[in-house]
Amino acid sequence: MANKSKRLISLDALRGITIAAMILVNFPGSWDHVFPPLHHAHWNGITPTDFIFPFFLFIVGVSIVMAYSGRLDGPGAKGSMYRKVFFRGAKIFLLGILLGMIPAFDFSAIRVAGVLQRIAVVFVVCTILFINLGWKRQAYLALILLVGYWLAMTLIPTPGLGEVVLEPGRNLAAWIDQQLLPGKMWQGDWDPEGLFSTFPAVATGILGMLAGQLLKCNLKDTDKANNLMIVGLILTLWGVGWAWFFPINKNLWTSSFVLVTGGVAFSFLGALYYWIDIKGHKQGTRPWVIFGSNAITVYVLADLLSLVFYQLPLGEKSISEHFMHGAIHLGMMDKIASMVFAMCFVAINYIPAWLLYRKGVFIKL
Predict the structure, then answer these.
(1) Residue 186: how many CB atoms within 10 A of its CB?
(2) Domain presence at residue 364
(3) How many CB atoms are closer than 10 A to CB 335?
(4) Structure pTM?
(5) Which InterPro entries match (predicted)?
């Protein structure tokens, strides 16, 4: 999507809302004082925070369709595309590992899994699928991934236990990660971005590609918006029903979790597409478009800036600790103070995003 005038404003806005929400929940004033909806669900269940990462993977899928449609014509086009895709995926993957090492750079405690690493894998796999498969085969593959993951997780006993369990660190996905995943894991003996749970995460990316192809099809714009919202409702209800047999669980990225979050993402995109791109209500969207135009760059900057606000000592305390102490001393409720700090941190990250957007710089990591 090199031509800015052809960009979907609604997609950039949704990406911007998602990255701003990701910063908001990742950087509170204090982890001891956070409102429950701004926490991930401890295990089974779902909170508003749990929608953020799957929304981003869904948007990756949509963006693949918008960026690579029509680029496969001519001799050698696929080979050139593969090289670019693998190179970009490798950059994002390695950047995720690097961010996880800051500031200690302890090579004995490298975490290979991670958020950016999963984004990189989903991006590469989904782009290859988009290049080689039509939308129907993509849909069938997503279904196979979700059903296969469900059957494996609920029918195959965890080796060493002799029974099927879906508990932290004791389920099949955790066992596979313990055997195959190099480096340290986020929770010691399991990782929410582990190897096996990346398969259903690819299905989340495929759902995004299906949404993107719906946006590219030859229908009236209003029909596209309606279809996005209808498909979203169907997927959400399907996921809620599946949850009776396979609980909604972000840490395991269960099949029901994929459908519920993917369905809501479909509906959100449809609503924004109708309101912004069809009806032209662009007022108020500019901050989200600015965030969304350099989303991964902003995500990386937020991680780097957090070192200043959370770890750089200012006297005996960090900046975040000074803020919390001062706000609570002035009578502000502790959880509100923590959320206000997070909102201020989002605003601070908006500044470099605005400068990049103003200068027309769109960094493609």
Answers:
(1) 14
(2) no
(3) 17
(4) 0.93
(5) HGSNAT_cat
- How many structural domains does the chain have? 1
Q: Look up the domain containing 71 and give its range.
A: 4-358
Count H helices, E strands: the chain? 13, 2
Q: Tell me what pLDDT residue 2 has.
A: 35
Structure tokens at 44: 């089974």
Give residue-wise pLDDT tens across range 295-318: 999 999 999 999 999 988 888 889
Q: What is the mean pLDDT of the chain?
A: 92
Nearest in space to 196 (alpha carbons), one of 212, 216, 174: 174
Residue 269 to residue 37: CA distance in whole angstroms: 22
The owner of tokens 């991670």 is 114
With 0-12 CB in 10 A as exposed, 13-18 as middle and 19+ as buried, what is 343? Answer: middle
Count CA within 13 A, CB hemisphere, residue 117. Answer: 19
Whole-number Å distance between alpha carbons of 77 and 244: 46
